[in-house]
Design a protein that fits this description.
15 strands, six-stranded antiparallel β-sheet, globular, mainly beta, four-stranded antiparallel β-sheet, single chain
């Protein structure tokens, strides 16, 4: 993973936006830091080089998620992504990746530093979703997973959560069902 400020001195003393790129995964991150103690910072962002520091294709769909809030949107390349404002003296951690409706995606969680870089992925099999990861941290983390279009958990939810509480190799299997979306 590598990180670089978008504009080193644009926010006066410290950079307000940092672009992070996963080394093996096909996603990019933007950390938006609100150094102000009183005012909110704009949360919406464009899905393009101006917003994320990457070129996007206007004919392709992208999933943009913010890890702390759990907000996510599917948009076309170059489109404005409506997100909540960044609260005073806090930050927002956004992730953008190409969207394919038949894939599952990590859209949020408390293990936000790598935004899913430590996971081995999510696989859908008839009747179950498998989520595997090599977890390195001694503290518990929760991952929020958006199931592919047409899949739901047994309670009818498209978004599911998985919690891991110890370091090591983990595989989670959750029952799911195909639906008529």
């Amino acid at each position: 993973m590598w990180a670089k400020p978008k504009e080193l001195f644009a926010a006066e003393r410290f950079p307000a936006e940092i672009v992070v790129t996963g080394r093996e995964k096909e996603f990019h991150q933007l950390v938006r830091i609100n150094w102000d103690d009183q005012k909110e910072m704009e949360g919406s962002i464009t899905a393009d080089r101006e917003g994320f520091g990457i070129d996007t294709d206007p004919g392709s769909r992208y999933l943009v998620s913010e890890f702390f809030s759990g907000e996510y949107n599917v948009v076309s390349g170059g489109e404005l992504v409506k997100m909540s404002p960044v609260k005073p003296h806090s930050c927002a951690v956004y992730k953008i990746q190409k969207y394919e409706p038949d894939k599952a995606y990590i859209v949020g969680g408390t293990g936000h530093y790598s935004l899913g870089e430590e996971t081995d992925g999510v696989r859908m099999k008839e009747g179950k979703m498998e989520f595997s990861l090599s977890y390195l941290f001694p503290a518990a983390s929760q991952y929020r997973i958006l199931l592919p279009e047409g899949w739901r958990d047994l309670e009818g939810n498209r978004e599911v959560s998985v919690e891991v509480s110890s370091p090591g190799e983990h595989v989670f299997s959750l029952p799911v069902k195909k639906t008529e979306d």
